[in-house]
Every structure is written in structure tokens, then in C-alpha cells.
Amino acid sequence: MHKISNMEIPNDKKKHFVAGFAISAIVSLFFGYIVGLSAAVGAGFVKEAYDYTTKRGTPEWLDLAFTAGGALVFTVVSVLSSLLFRVF
Questions:
Q1: Distance CA 66, CA 33 (A)
Q2: How far apart are CA 22 and CA 74, in angstroms?
Q3: What pTM was estimated for this model as a whole?
């Protein structure tokens, strides 16, 4: 059994996470959090479908999960931050 501290996240997964975060952040600025989250998840799905159909990349569900995870982290942190700043 591996310890979590010894596990290294592959660079490809880190890039998917950052892409999901960035897409969600940029789209959310203009259209709101739900649209931003949806756009990032949709972009991740399209990227994996492209990899599958063109055979130019390796489609992986985990890539889609990391893209969606980045988008979700942005959305949750942003919503909680905005709620916190409304209180103060």
C-alpha cells in the first residue's frame, strides 16, 4: 500500500487541473459560476472525445476528472470567498 505523501501526480494530470481551473475562472468572470463550471467540464469532455476519435492522444477518464476537479475547486473557493466577504 502506498502512502499518499509518496504519490506523485503526473504532469499531464496537473495540466488538466490547471486548464479546468483557468477555463472556469475566465468564463465565470463573464457568465457566472455555473456556466464557468459547465464550460470547463465540457471542454474536458471535448478534449477526451477528440483524443478518442483522432487517436492523436490517449483518452482517459482520469484526465476528465482532473479537469473537472480544477473547475470545481475554483468554483467552490470563489463562492465561499464571495460569501465570506459579504459577511464582513
A1: 18
A2: 8
A3: 0.88
Can you tell me the distance from the alpha carbon of 83 to that of 69, in angstroms, rounded to the nearest whole number? 21
- Read off the pLDDT of residues 51-80 as tens digits, 9 standing for 90 and up: 999 999 999 999 999 999 999 999 999 999
CA-closest candidate to residue 36, choices 79, 84, 66: 79
Q: Is-contact 79 33, C-beta < 8 A?
A: yes
Nearest-angstrom CA–CA distance, 51 and 59: 5
Distances (CA, A) of 17 to 31, 32, 64: 21, 20, 9
**Cell numbers at residue 60, please?**
482517459
User: Is residue 26 packed enough to be buried (19+ CB in 10 Å), middle (13-18) or exposed (0-12)?
Assistant: middle
The span from the CA of 23 to the CA of 6, in Å, is 30
